[in-house]
Structures are given as C-alpha cells and as structure tokens.
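pasting for the record
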Amino acid sequence: MSKKLRWGVIGCAGIAVGAVIPGIQQSETGEVTAIASRGIEKAQQTAAELNIAKAYGSYEEILHDPDIDAIYVPLPNHLHMEWSIKAMEAGKHVLCEKPIALNAGEAQRMADASRKAGVHLAEAFMYRFHPRYDRMKEIIRSGELGELRGIRGAFTFNNAADSANVRYRKDWGGGSIYDVGCYPITAARLLLEQEPEAATVHALLSPEHDGVDMMAAGILEFADGVALSFDCGMWAASRNNLEVVGTKGRIEVPNAFVGDASFYVFTSEGRRVEEQPQLNQYALQADDFARVAWGEQAARFSPDDAVANMKIIDACLASAETRQRVLI
C-alpha cells in the first residue's frame, strides 16, 4: 500500500514506545513521522531508538507539523482531554489512550470537538480489533451457549512497588478501574451489545498510593438478569481472562486482552479449541483507524461509545467511594 497515514506521537510513555508505535510501524496503513516530549533530548533519544524521522521538544510544536495527519495521545489520563482537543482543533485525527478522559463530561467535550473539527477520534482499546471477538459474538448469536447468564472478567498485575508511577496519582486519574478495569467493562458491552443499568464496586483504596483503587471487584447489571462480575488490580498476581456463561455452554478466554488469542468453547459435546491467528492488535487498530480517517469505512466504535464507557467508569468509581449501588 503506497498511501500512508502519517502519525505524530505526543509523549514517550511505555505503552507508546513498547506497543503502539511498533504496531503502527508494522501496520499496512501507517507510518510514525514524529514524536514529541516535554524535552528535546528525550524526544530525540526515543526517535533514534524507533527510527522516527522528527523529534519535537514540546507538545505544541508537533501539532503544527503539516506532514502529520493523526496524533496518538498516550499521556497521563488527566491530560487526555486537553491535548486531544488541541490536536483536533489543529485538524488532526486523534487516537487517545484509554480511558479516553477522567469522566463522561470530559469525554463528551472531546466527542463534540471531533464532530466540530470533522476528524476521527478513537479510544485505544486495541483488543477489540482482533477477529476473535467477532468470532465470539458469532458463537453467542448462534445459540450454541443457550441463553446468556453472565460474564466474568479479570485484569490484574502487580506494580505496587513503583510508588512514583503516574497510575498512583489520584488527581491524574490513577487507579485500577481507570487502568485495567475498563477492559472487562468494554468487553462485556461489546459481547452483550447493550449498556449496563447499575454498578456496585468494592475497592482497596490504598493510603500508600494516594488513595487510588489498587484493587477493585464489581458487578455491572445488564438487562434480563445478566451481569458482568469483574475484578481489576495493580497489586495482585497477573491475570487477564474472560468467561462467558450460558445455559448450554460457556466460552473461556485465558488471555482476553493481551497474549495468545485462542480460546475455548465448552458444551455438552466437550471442549473445543477455537484457534485464532496471532496478530498484532496494535497494527490492526492502526489500520482500522486509518480507513475511518480516509473515509473508507464507518467507525466501529464512535466517540459516543467512549462517552458511554466513561459513564460506567464514573459509576464504578462513585460506588467504590461510597460503597453503594450506583445507577447509570
């Protein structure tokens, strides 16, 4: 493919350097042409390591580069809205790291800005672009699992010793619900194709980590008595799994968001392995983004989807703070 979407990256975050930039570089449609940091030395060092042509010593400079079509924003959560809107006002398409904002109000402002500027805005949930989730939805729709009874999801890791990490700044949008709880939440919405009605969450709010939720367990109530039960954490052994349970069978996904893409289907006939290709989810995300930006296809996940997701996260955080059930 000769046509390329030219990307600029604001910030040298670990997710950008370790996953998203390499994913764009491996995609069919994208090339990373510039990277910006708060200091030119960091930007130049990262650009050299990743073979990026241009480096900028401020976020503002990269937005005015006419050779950039799209901006990827991997900054700390509290900066997502500010820099995404600035990029969109500069005429750039924006891929913003999840969660898209600190709350639904911010997400709505971002969605409005994308419509006003006429650019594509997307939230970076890369796992949604792997074809295995389409396959899971096919199995659910086929009736092989019977009537759905519930979904269980978990995403945890242990990074608690890194006390200076941005995830442990409450005013910066720190905490496990923002960081990893959002994955099983979006997965349940994706598979059930509906929005939950209420949230109940219990959390470990750690004084050692600025009071953010270092571990949380919750229930999201969907229609017809179906619920997502999930847990997430940054102070627990590593897990990222998903289970979909019906009256006749279940789907078990050992690595639901990162790792081996294959999953298992259990029915009265036994266990079946659903072999899935080991694709770069970040490259798939970049290709989908480019085709939407070029007007070749409609967005699978609109900015309104991100707003809806933030409403759920708002409810989860409120429930964790108040220890009460919160209507969404």
